[in-house]
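job 3f2a | input accepted
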Amino acid sequence: APRLVRIGRAPTPPTGSSLIAAVAAIKSMQITVALAPRDAVALRDYATAVGDRNSPDFRNYLTPGEFRARFAPTRSALARVKAELLRHGLKPGGVTRNGLAIHVRASSAAIEHAFHLTLIRTRLRGGRDAIYNAQAPAVDASVAPSVQAVLGLSNLAVMQRLDLTHVAAAK
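job 3f2a | predicted structure (171 res):
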């Protein structure tokens, strides 16, 4: 059996939430497999330089194609991750323009099997139902260095709009 590596941590449900179902049966979920950049140090340095007024790269932004050529995983690394997803019964979809993510749509059962985790349905204190992964996702050790995260396994947190200009204008 291949050795598995857990990627990240599982979220903790908030206090006051109550279990609805130990297994969240969902026909179709969209998740995103975030890929590790080819050279994380060079990416960090570029991100710092593009925001530094004293840098020759200040505001010298890259197009998605330029970014992909410079920082995205190699084609072979991308192919290995896609093959691993297929091996576990998932169907990888498109890759983002910057090359750092693969979209995947599958049933919750397929996702649970592929990433060796359990998805749980819970009711939050405010009455909203949510899904979360009880374990961090696991991938085969051979592709673990190429996988940075698996996004979309939980909807405990809700995106909040931070439109401060709009808030200030309303006062």
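job 3f2a | The first helix runs from residue 40 to 50.
job 3f2a | closed
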